[in-house]
## 1
Amino acid sequence: MNHKLPHLYLRNPSGSIHKFNKSRAITDTKLDDKDPEAYRVHKQKLHASFVQLKQDRETRLQQKTLVPENLAIVEIRFLIPFSDGATFKTRTRFLNEFGLSPVMQKDFNRTVLFAIVDDVKFKTFDRLLNQYIESDNRTPPQGSRYAIMTTLYDVKYNTADDIRNNCTDDLVFEFINNNAYVDAIYETQRKVLDEYLDTLAVFGDIDSFTIDPYDKMVQIKGASREVVIEIAKNFDILAQAHSLRAATVKPDKFNTAQLTWGLNIRRNGNPATVIGILDNGIRPIDPIREVVLDGLDITTTGNALSAAHQHGTVVASLAAVGERYFTGENELIADAQVYSIKILENMDGYIDVIKVVDAIRNVHRTRGIRLFNLSVCTQSKAYNESPSLFAYLLDKLAYEEDILIFIAAGNMHYDDLVAMQEEVHDLHIYPNHFYNPSISSDIHSCEFTNICTPAESMNHITVGALADNYRPETATDLSHDKDLPAYYSRKNHYDFKQKINGGKLSPNHGNKNLFKPDLVMPGGDLLNDDGAMQVLGFGDTGTDYYTFDAGTSLATPLALNLAAQLINLYPNISLQSVKALMINSADSFSHTYLEDGVDKRKDMLAKRVYRRSFEDLNKGEKTNITKQVLSAEDIHRNIAGHGKPDREKLLYSSEGEVSLLIEDVIPTDHHKVVLVNIPEYLLGSANSKCLNIQTTLCFKINPAWGNHVDYNPLHISFNFANSVIKDSPDDLAAIIADRDHDFYKDSWTDEIRTLQRKKDIEGLSLSEKAKLASLKLKVKNQVLGVKTTVDSWSEDFFPLVNKPLSNRQQMSIILAKKDIQKIGNQLVIALRCAVKENLDHDLQAWIQRTPEHAFSLAIRVTDESKIKDRPKLYEELQAVNTLEVVNNNITDLDQDLEADA
């Protein structure tokens, strides 16, 4: 019998060293050299843009009637990242030479809003731009003072139309980032804006306004078009307006086959986890009455336990019992109680994001609720769009409070789904509609399948939907198979193959770990009721006891229920450990359903570039095409994340599959090592695989507003390594952190020794320095490699100034007998940590007061040795490691062990 055993904390000795070499032996990103004639069109475009900029600036000054001081805001779109990491040192030069201070950075910092903080210096910008525009088209700009202008894609003035963004009624205005260069004018305009909004509210020209606690946005309700235009005309400290109206849900369809619910969900006798349901209210109908607590209503209805639509009530029922809801049992004991946080009355209403965040903080502090469900989304994300204000506020809240929110990825619009099935087009056929950036139809573009705000949140868990509806007798409708992502489920909006400002992102500036959703759960299929889930109705008419529904709204509470079960078992683990264990337990599935579409895109691009089909290309040409096309594996990850959590793996270890958990901290600019001792019995294996070790790292971030690349300012990553010394973890950390460590000298090649002698005596050229560093790194990786060499780290940090970072990473390693022998039965898990530089002033204090950073590492170790009568891995790991049973409530553990004895 393979018993349900508790997970184990790994308490082995660890070591650390205050060292992190962030340099890299590769050149900085720069623009490709072009024929001088190629700049002609670029010059013409910039000339027209700058002429328009001057006109727009003059017009804006004439429009103003409310503010005494002006702050000119210019938007510049770059062809390279705006940073000091590039050859042109744009961050320093644009401030020091041109008087331009960045106040908002988007499009992975290729689009920047600048405040003109020195008009005299800005004239230098004007002069250099004119020199570039008027330069001889036969003379290359490289090496000239105006060469920096070749980094620009476009320039424009930030006009009132840009700020108001066609929004009216209920909306939010983003504030630009304040800094020392704009502070005086910023504060003046803020004071005037507050007074003006107060006056509008008194006279009934707006219903109300609220400013968020972090001073990043002002939320206005009931603003007419004229009011919005007037605000946008006057206040330079506003970046852009956004609407936060909830996406509509599909029409109700009721099942008349049953005339009663026939279901009772009972409260657990033990204190159960409480889940906050952020939705349109929970109606305590008979099946769930016992598990519904009271609630908090931030709408005008004043009753959190009333609901005009069954959406929140259905979500609550699934959060309480999870997948067991679909077993057909009449009596179910709940895994969690539910607390209603009513954020909407009608499902297409406006979401008051400030009140939502305040409500979460309030019920967490007063009721101790840590888990929340948000199955209500707003607008979808454009490709590579920056994190929204809603996501920022939720991420900031999670960093400050002990909470975890499960957020729906969002559904495609129901009317669009209907229209797509009525019009025959290859793009509308599953799964082509998810990702096909080269084509579009009159009613669909693959951008319409991107996740909805705030599903891009990094500190929380985003959930997509599989087409499964827990009804084995029915078939799917739009999706190909129940085990595949549902047709309507939305995908990751980051696509590093897409052009930004007319140029492609460097491979160094992308990040394979930045994808959403994190997980998927069954959500049913559309449009046929046979493919949908049968969920609770209100029973108002005597026939509507059940309804058919589908969506990520249903998948999300099913995932959250698993988290509740995990916390019920292990009440003291951190919420980042919950996230890490859930992701580490997830099983992905084949991406073959996407391969045909990828092949078509390769063929289409090959014909466009080489005028031949992909199969007729030579090896080099195929490689060039493949680099430009997102792989089936990448697309699948963008749709399905890490896959569906396996309940048994999530909740329990077993005799042959053990989950180890590390909850620890790592200081900034440190390397840290944790040792995992491998049981001796595995050396008796004749199988090529002995152990499969899968590891997931999760940590919370303190987000940076208005800086896309630095939104996550914290880098933590990990790797597997050989334990080259056994007696001192600190020394081992020092060896791993330093490629120049004396430990590696015994493994140096003759070429390294020759270059090192030359360096010591007469010095090296730049190319020789790069070569020496590369050779030393190669030796280091060979020495530290568990196999032939060290694999890439879970996340690459370089270049730190231009690399967007993830706070959720996963790696696996399979150990064969020879690997275990090489490492002397001791595997090293190495971690490293760094913080971004040049952060805005509001994060500088955080850096000073936060010298170390908490993380959770979930490690699943599986015995694949196939040794006859093999020992139990669970016991053998305990024998050779310092392990501690995670405090748990596994009630059948003692009985299982007694039965086994």
## 2
Amino acid sequence: MENKAGPQHFRISSSLKDIIGRDLITNDFVAVFELVKNSFDAHAKRVDIVFDDGGLWIVDDGKGMSRNDILSKWLFVAFSAKRTGEEDDDLPEGFRDRISLRRGYAGNKGIGRFSCDRLGSALDLFSRQSGTKVVHKLEIDWSDFEIDPKQEFAEIGIRMTAPRSLPDVPHIRALSDGGTILAIGDLREHWSRKKLLQLRDYLAKLVDPFAPPEDMEIHLHARSEEAADEVDRAKGNPTVNGIISNSIMEVLEGKTTRLTVDLVNGKIATTLHDRDRLIYKIEEDNPYELLDDAHISADLFYLNRSAKSTFTRRMGIEPVKFGSVFLFLNGFRVFPIGEEENDEFGIDRRKQQGYARYLGTRDLLGRIDIVAPVAVFREASSRDTGLVESPRTKELDEFVLRHLLTRLEKYVVDVTWADTLDADRSDTSGLSSEQARSRIIEVVRLLAGRKGVRLLDYDRELIDTISDRASEFERAMEGLAVVAEQTGDQGLLERIERSRRRFEQLREAAAEAEKKAEAESRKRTAAEAAARAAVQRAEVFERKYEQERERALLLTSLEARDSETLTLLHHQVIIYATAIQDAVANNLRAIADGDPIDPVDLAADLEQISFQNSRILAVTRFATQANFKMDADWIEADLIQFMDEYVSNVASLFEGGQFATFDRGESKLVTRFKPIDVSIVLDNLLSNARKAQATHISFTVRRVKQALGLEMLVEDNGRGVDAAKVDRARIFEKGYSGTASGSGLGLYHATQVITAMGGSIGLDPTYEAGGARFLIRLPRPSKAKGAEVEA
């Protein structure tokens, strides 16, 4: 028998319901979220999720559905009006005035409605289109589709009626206009308190926690948990009931390093902030052709140890358990990207190639938000495997690597990680050191020097001329020249040129001072040789020889202890005094010649004179008392022992024996340092305590963490720092003084010395006992240098 002519058709089993429902949506949380996304696409301002008496209601105040919407869209399996562009064609005029049409939609596959089956076996759908009074009700028993797999899907009847009004839902107010109510009964699983709290956390992350949609609120209600909520609220624990919100931006803002990238209209704008300070802002052309029709905005946060601790304390969860880099499509989370074990962008795979060079997901929090027309990016149907792979997703991966991860990495690795103490800072105090500023300048230089990159803005205080005493001065000047040329900053170019001239003058002066010191040493050596020759000639007289021999032994022992030390100290005084003499001479010469003196240059010269004079004062103390042999500008020794001996044996002669005490316990820190410069730090702290009318100052050394080295508490009982009169954040700045008679250089010099050693100094903000307490942190030196730290 021949087949009848004409086309044949697929037949669809009733089992299709399971395939596109429970088999795809395997997570109850995802099922709830799919229904919330439908409310978002319906332009709802509010969604209420209500658990009561074994049932679940999802209520939104969106545009609602007409009878035709239900028949031709909701009941049309796999059809998506969002994909065809018909979703909002029949919006009532009044509703159009209420909303702003979105560029994209959260869902577009036409299967999210089967999430209802995942949650419960019965569904009553009520909907009223905005601007009308007509209510439509759809009754579905999902078990009807499970009786006979041979039965045609379309043959199973669904009852549709038109009740007079929308039903009352427990705990919430009735809808005043349009909206949709999903009443899901015969729930398939028990929703315990633990599971409800998990749902709350899940929704908080799924609705973009970094930039949530401002036009839709989500509320969770469960009457059975109200009593337990009262108890947990009193303890500060999370509660089930209430609005779904996320304070993550409040927690992270100003406490982390944040990179913000915006790709729109063919341009990529990138801004980097370190805690509360702008580092740079750049713009470049978009090289990704397949991403041109999308608007991509991203925020990537690096969390140091301090930020992680703050996050855990405020959020009640460790950052690593919260997630890493989330992906959002048209305002809603693409699951499971960003979950604890997810490495969608290969961040951890990359970190394995170089642990000290790359960031991992444990270091990062962030979001990538894509707003794009329907089908530009497609979420996988299973709802737990991210985006469908395509050429666009490959370009997205490249964009994330090149413009987010490596840009943030370059700054964190080269600037932040280079300062071992920065891990425990919540502010940017460490960025003001010459070393940190030099590293920042280098990062900006590398960016500004790239083809196609336009430097729009930068922190002019941090990225500015640095002290000509800084070891990185010459490289920093090269970087600043690139920045100045890129931005057309003529003032910066002029300051660079002045700084370079001063650097050359100082270098020449230092060389001249060294030559003078060497000449003095040669004269002294010649004189000592002549003296020894005279003693040898005296050996002719035997009797005098014996007497002279005994006397010479005594003189030789004294010379070994004192003369050599004083000679070397004298050598240093010549160098420091020559630097002062040259600075004064240069300015006097300019005055005599009638040349204009730049106030900036004059201030720099005076600061240089002050610093060198501090060194001379320190040398005089060594020369009279220090039991210490200084055979070089730098020495490698136990820094803590040196500080102890200086405070106890040297400073005590000038300040009084009972004025200062030093408690180092068993602490030891062998490292390279300049003794004279360290004494300047101690002298300034002692002098400031005296000026504050303190009768005692104590130095206490303690071990804080293996990675940090040592911390020294310097505490006095003086007047303290009056916050009403003195800006505590500025007391370490050059030229800022808390007293009318101060120069504003003492603590500035102390800061320069400590930061040059890789450490930090600051006021203890928690100290309220009267007087002042300074915290000095000294990092553990590299083991490669043979240094050691003990406690």
## 3
Amino acid sequence: MGWQGARSALIGRTAELDRLIAVLDAADGGLAGVALLGGDAGIGKTRLVTELAERARADGFAVLVGQCAELGDALPYLPLADALRGATGELSAAIDARPVLGRLLPGGGDLGQESTSGLTQQQLFGSMLGFLSVQPVLLVLEDLHWADQSTRDLLVFLSRMLQTERVCLIGTYRTDDLHRRHPLRRVLAELKRLPSVTAVELSPLDRGEMTDYLVTLGGTDARMMGEVVDRAEGNPFYAEELLEAASDGSSITDDLAGLLLSRVELLSDAAQGVLRGAAVAGRRVDHDLLQQVSGLENLAFDDAMREIVSRGLLRLDGEYGYAFRHALLQEVVYTDLLPGERTRAHAEFARLLTLREGAAAELAHHYLAGHDLAGALAASVEAGRRAERLGAPAEAHRHFDRALGLWDRVPDAERLAGIDHVPLATRSAVAAADSGDNHRAISQLRRLPPSAEVTERLAYFLSDTNDEEGAIAAAHAAVEMAPEGPVLARALATYARALYWSERHDEVEPLATQALEVARAAGAADAETSALITLASLAALADDIPRATGLLACATAESSGNLAIDLRAIFTYARIQYEYGDLGEAAVTTDRGMRLADETGLNWSTYGTDLRFLRFLIHYVAGEWDLAERVAAGFGIRVGTPSEATLSSFALFVEVARGLPVVEERLSWLEPFWSSDALVSYMAHGLAAEHALWRGDPEAALEHVDAVLEKLSPNDPAMIRLSTTALWALADLGRASEADGFLERARFPTVIGPGSGVRGPMGPEGLAWLARAEAEWHRAHGRFDVEAWRAVVEAFDFGFVYETARSRWRLAEALLVSGDRDSALEEWQRAVKDAASLGARPLSTALEELGRRARFVSVRSNLLTSREQEVLMLVAEGLPNREIGERLFIAPKTVSVHVSNILGKLGVSSRTQAVAAARGEGLL
């Protein structure tokens, strides 16, 4: 594998390639140009030049490529000689006609001495200029950072003298090899001021581009690719080598290690020693600390650092420190150390860091690497505490986990840590949950001896994973074990929460009320907030929204001391506002929660994730789909953790409804999580079923529904939408015999559990889905019930733009069957308008088909392509070609072609006639 060998699209490099092509096109038109292409080793320069060369050959250019070598001035004009060896045809004859050029070829003589003569160089340069005027030429000089003085002189000469020749000159160089005194620096500065020179510098690829590139190389494991992307830091060659190494079970390939170490070996012995010390410190190191470890005096250390920095191995980082230019360079230098060297260096860093405040994380690392396990344990616990205070739960969990791993190997661990084993393990589990890994938290807690505190936390996290049975059992056990006071208050609040979704709903309010009383008496603010949330949720179920919002306003007024519970309170507040149709207030509350999650590092906690989804959902329901897509842009496709998979599945709402091609890719990455995560399974299978229905495959839709049915509790409100989707599929198939069972499934959550008739009314969206289930059931039995579909439209019309439009589609169909054509047309037109404003292409297609069958639109509507339809709509607005092009991101010439096609298809001769004809045909 090689970056330059990957024949996939130039991921992340199209803008840079376009700039190079512009220079080539100008040369083709008789305006010679020069492009200087810079970037770190492996960043993709050769791949770009290779692509440009293919384009040049297709345009009739001769392509000459010369490679500089790491030989200094020993062989002058080496890249030019290398390039001339590739000359054929007219260019070969032109070399024969110019003896000075011929002497650069094998057997042609030696210019090594003569090239220092001004006359000889002048003759050579003149001959080269004439040679390049013979035919169109792309001349590439690779790796100019190794160029000799004569080649640099030639580069300057050609850049200044090439004018009307059909020549494109490309020079590439490594920016990471240009130390401060490198002779090419002056040349580049001089050339970049010339109007004929285009400077292109390749920056690292971003995470999305890197992941796309790894996929083209055959990467499939999301976790492995995530690690490769992190380590490669935007460098495609590094990523390719790391992917190969990971596939072979190693850390780094020999080729990559050799490439990186070759630059280190150019340093003096003193500088190499300092760099090795920096590698032991990690990616970044403090100036004073590094000098102390090096043992060098001020002047000697400054000389060594100047050498290292000038060669681009370390860069200045802040006011008093340095950082490795690339993390892999630090890794290979560190790996190259002998075991004894590492241990001694780590011990010295640990000794020096003990004198500094706030260095617990670094200290723990050096203690562990220096085999001081006792010091590593104590420092790890302190680092975890500090990470907690800074709102970094993932880091806190990592530090606490490292301390727990050392616990049995260190005598007197409790004294060193300042905390007992069980409380430390509990804090580690809480940190894991706060970072979004509830399963890890549950696993840790289950390994601990049972106690009221541990069992209560276990019950709480089991509730977050929808393990109703496990949560109830653990919460009951916690209440039985808990002494009077804060622990009992938390256990009671968690027990009430665990029972909330169960059939034992009559027990919830007394438990929550008791929890509230005990919490207030014991001063347990977190338990008080938890109890208030449950009581507010009960009030909302009873349709007592003023009481529910009042309780939640109280619960969210001040921090409870537990950020996860604070986020749960804000989310519940926003959810109730959303479910009862107050989308504006729900948006404000959700934004508040998202800010808190972001500020405290809880973005990936259960409710940090839920708040982001709710913000997306508010945009989705309100019909603000462009904003929804903007939010969903942060829901990664290539997922590796349950939290990432959960957010990714939410993005399918808009992507399926808009018929975006990314749906299939997103589903393929979510599939590994379908068996282990009930929420991801419901979201992904449910929306995959809708996707299949839009594509005319109701059998596949039913398979998706069947795959998730057993994962949902029968009284889960999500069952209503899932059953409705199944009824849609059965109606399309005409299989009425199976419809009754799914209608019963849809009705069941309204009879048992939260939102049932026993406990209070459902929210407007749940009732709307139930109404649609009833209407689809009629359709499955061959009945187009107008009143049933009218009830669905009215139910969704609380502000759910898309579902209202989708229901109007079916209502229009039912009205047509009933013979009420005028009402059908009215409903159809409203649905068409809303579908178009949303960009809901599958729905628009279905409406177009219904319109053709009903003769609401002309059968000629399929004459225009989708792009021509877009152009026609803008022509109807009176926009000129330039503005249409800006709107659609296409060239004015392309717009002109589309307009000509539209005129021809409609049989008219002017734009005005086209608009009139289109309106008459029902195309607008």
## 4
Amino acid sequence: MKALISLLGLLPLAAQALDQTGLERMANNLDVRYEILRALQGEPCDPAFGDGHCYEVRLTLTLPYDQVDTDWQLYLGLVNPVQSFKSDSLRINHQNGDLHQLTAKVPFEKGQPLSIDWRANFWQLGYTDTLPNFYLAAPGLKAVVVKATQPPADAVLPKDELPFVKGDIPHLRTADDHTPVADGQWYFSRYPAAAPAPLEAVLPEPKSLSRQLGEVKATAFALKAPGFKLPKLGLPLSPNGLAVSISRQQGPAESYRLKVEDKGVAITASDDAGAYYALVTLTQLFDGSQLPKVTIDDSPRYPFRGLHLDLARNFLGKDFVLQLIDEMGALKLNKLHLHLADDEGWRLAIPGLPELTRMASKRCHDPQEERCLQPQLGAGPDGAGRDGFLTPADYQDLLRAAQAHHIEVIPSLDMPGHSRAAIRAMEVRFRRLSADNMAGAGQYRLVEPANGSRYQSIQYYDDNTLNPCIDSTYAFTQRVFSAVQAMHQQAGVPLKRYHIGADETAGAWHDSPACKALIANGEIKDQHDLLPYFLGKVIGQLHDLGIEAAAWSDGLERVDPKTLPGKVQSNVWTPLFWGGEKVAHQMANQGFEVVYSFPDLTYLDFPQAPDPQEPGYYWGSRYIDDTKLYRFMPGQLAANAQQFKDRQQNPYQADNWPLEKPANILGLQGQLWTETVRSPAQAWYRLLPRLAVLAEKAWHQSPWEGPQPDWAGQAQGWQRLAATLGSKWLPRWDKEGLHYRLPPVGVQKENGQYHLRLPYPGLTIEVLPQGASQWQQWHPGMALKAPFKTRAKSRQGRPGRAIEISE
């Protein structure tokens, strides 16, 4: 009976040896405090790491009882590895990737903290540089997540997800960093005065729209569209509804004309995609009872209007992707780059290679990596809610859904770098077949046992790169390419383009016997030719299958496109302030098809304000908000230096590199990498409304853009777009339950009076005076006295992030 009472936690906490119950008790009671002490540079930092920069962290652990057993390990994820540490009670060491292991030198005493100070590479300027789900393990016991580091299931913002991060977070990287603080005044300066949206407001803005007097009454529509395959778009349909005729006309791809008159709606389109986009426009014009009389002539600015979605780092699920496809179609985006494999997970089942998903789609505490991959990116000891994969049937459902919205899916299973999930899975396969003396055990093995190379990738892995010099690498890639193509064929959706990846490839082959032999045989000149050699081989495999290739620009920079078969797409991801314009124009001039993917403007996982409470990595920009994205001029890359600065908010010089082959600029792609995105709600927070602004830039060329931009026209254009977002799109997302980002309130004080502002109409502003227990709706002229808090509220009553006004 006493043992049962103890298990139920009804006895006073007391010292006990560590068994499974004790480990779970320890995980449930361990108090964790993670505190950034200071940012450092120069002498205290290891010059071999972090570019001479580091920061100092103190981790403090406390138990409310004695714990005599020290035979336990605490595993935690750190974005930046530890350079050095000091502690009398704890030690820490790097495992692989972001995973670190902490062990105890001394036992816990009741209420007495054990602490460790360490220096880590670079800097920490936001909460999301800390990862959740620390966990405890011990020999022979099942690992258990530490409760104090486990985020609430509905957590969206970092401070809610990471309550164990304490204290102030440094704001500046270096003494030369001039990034402003995102306070009420900063927000106020970025928000235009709210304006009503006209009835005919459409996003993306059409090329030409003329308005006639009057409206046309309608409650339903009768579609007459012979020869067109059109999806349901939410328009009410009825045989007795207002007639909508659809016919063909000559014109640019995806173009259409839409005319609304008393007698009905006439659509003429160059192709099915144009007809679809005309109906998308019609849904925006229709308010439920009437349409404005308009004539619209429209066609897209760029043929490639894309979004990259990373499902590898954290798997967001099939339902999320289906909902995303709906939103992309409504925004006239037409390319979905699906990132399905990386170091942290393989997310697409490949028939005949079950280990890729049976083992490498999961993360758990398994140091031998027989059942799963090591936990990374805060996955915890079981990866719950962050792992999974698409079956072939799931993937085909996505293909068909995308096709209905005229979206091309571009799959990517990254290689030769970012391939740890594949490498570990094929090792499990090799060991399984070898143990049974099965023929072909090494057919798809991705490890060369005699390779003595030592390296570390940019994400701190030492075993994540395919070897381009062994035949089994190409047997594996051929098997994967063929399997993915077969899935497309079975779905009735041809695979047109495959994205290889080829980015961030570490020097993993300098001591490979196979690579040395390749060089000695004269097939390549030296180690620098190994990546181009690999790309030539796999692009050739794709070409033989009738598939075009794409890759990230850094992998293609040493490749001459004239030596490659067929067209090759290059996603240029060098920031503009680091020469992105030069890279993009050089590659277009060489003959690559270029898609602008500049991190400082299109990485939608980056923070939306220079504030540690805004989630996301920030290596390429401290913030990308709606305003900044709207101001981007993709047709005048050099002119962007007139308005943007580098990542430390210092001016930079534009390259002014000539663009000799403008037809090779295909368009724009937004990126959502998911290292710090662990739920659909967190994904929508980062995507919306920014995805709508990206769609506007990709479809419509604003008249204010040019070598000498019309800044007044830019401000007016943003005001119109903000009004359209507030009046039409935020209500849509409210209705669909999408957790878009509500903007923090802008606050300005003039002559003792506080003025509060939001960028979008339709939102409510609330204030919480000091000492008050309930939020109050704000109205202009309301008397306010600092300190007070303020926040936005959606039409559905969802509150945004509050900011505090102290003076």
